[in-house]
UniProtKB/TrEMBL annotation:
Its main location: cytoplasm. Pathway: Pyrimidine metabolism; UMP biosynthesis via de novo pathway. Keywords: Cytoplasm, Flavoprotein, FMN, Oxidoreductase, Pyrimidine biosynthesis. FMN binds at residues 45-46, 128, 165, 193, 220, 248-249, 270-271. Its EC number is 1.3.-.-. Catalyzes the conversion of dihydroorotate to orotate with fumarate as the electron acceptor. It comes from the Bacteria. Homodimer. This is Dihydroorotate dehydrogenase. It comes from Streptococcus alactolyticus. Residues 5-292 form the Dihydroorotate dehydrogenase catalytic domain. The lineage of its organism: Bacteria, Bacillati, Bacillota, Bacilli, Lactobacillales.
Length: 311
């Protein structure tokens, strides 16, 4: 019997597919739809200390090869999402979930995480170190010193399972440096990758989104090779106790298979979920299972990380 079940640390999931933070996860209603689908879990929209309206519209556009967005972290405030995941965890047979968070400053991030630490929530937390769309705020994980200090300060008081959502890195020296930082901490997972930040899409002579004169995060087909490279680079470098979530360019079972082959324990859907809605989880799960059946694999463990090289 072919199974796409997986684990992140001590957390079990019946299916390795879930949404990516930012897609179909802004409201309780959207999150409930994902929960009721074939997805193994959901992650909430990244919650900030206070609710945010985000950037002016248009701020998301689908393209023939994917998408561009500059949402600017619109969200209902972290407490809205914390309340929902805590409520769900207390319902019988609840799936396990991920709560995505970040502050608009280091101080705000600590305020949020201390509130989560003091709450009844026992699930996974994803710290978003990679939003490219807030004007004036660089992607935190591109600054290794700031990232290292932030994680050191967080793990001085935070004892619940916490992972990080990373931006793509593009240089072997940066994979080495980033992994050396992350290996110092008891991370529950790393998630590779957020959108490729600050691309431009143009129609006729004009940008297609309003914020930041058209600059926005790129998702979809454009980013799969970069996502696979980041998943595999971290799979090669991180302590085996840190599982990897693969995100970027997944729109078929074959794409999910490739992420797992590169080392992903779980795979997130972004642009394709925006385009097709929650029914996409069943389609891609069936496609992944068909590939596993054809290859004689019964579980993800049979092929996770077993990417073959030409030498
Ligand atoms: C956004 O809200 O701008 C997208 C979220 C992200 O890229 O982290």
């Amino acid at each position: 019997m072919v199974s796409t079940a997986t684990k992140i640390g001590t957390f079990d999931f019946d299916n390795c597919l879930m949404n990516a933070a930012g897609v179909y996860c802004m409201t309780r209603e959207e999150l409930a739809d994902i929960d009721a689908s074939a997805a193994g879990s959901f992650v909430t929209k990244t919650g900030t200390l206070n609710a945010r309206a985000g950037n002016p519209e248009p701020r998301y556009v689908d393209t023939s090869l994917g998408s561009i967005n500059s949402m600017g972290l619109p969200n209902h405030g972290f407490q809205y999402y914390l309340d929902f995941v805590t409520e769900l965890q207390n319902t019988p047979n609840s799936k396990n979930h991920f709560l995505s968070l970040v502050g608009m400053s280091e101080e705000e991030t600590h305020t949020i995480l201390k509130a989560v630490q003091d709450s009844d929530y026992q699930g996974l937390v994803e710290l978003n170190l990679s939003c490219p769309n807030v004007p004036g705020k660089p992607q935190i994980a591109y600054d290794f010193e700031t990232t290292e200090k932030l994680l050191k300060d967080i793990f001085a008081y935070f004892t619940k399972p916490l992972g990080v959502k990373l931006p793509p890195y593009f240089d072997i020296a940066h994979f080495d440096r980033a992994a050396a930082v992350f290996n110092q901490f008891p991370l529950a997972f790393v998630n590779c990758i957020n959108s490729i930040g600050n691309g431009l899409v143009i129609e006729d002579e004009t940008v297609v989104i309003k914020p930041k004169h058209g600059f926005g995060g790129i998702g979809g087909d454009y980013i799969k090779p970069t996502a696979l490279a980041n998943v595999h680079a971290f799979y090669q470098r991180l302590n085996p106790t840190i599982p990897i979530i693969g995100t970027g360019g997944v729109k078929t079972g074959r794409d999910a298979f490739e992420h797992i082959l590169c080392g992903a324990s779980m795979v997130q859907l972004g642009t394709v979920l925006h385009q097709e809605g929650p029914a996409v989880f069943e389609r891609i799960t069936n496609e992944l299972k068909a590939i596993m059946t054809e290859k004689g694999y019964e579980s993800l463990d049979d092929f996770r990380g077993k990417l073959q090289y030409l030498d």
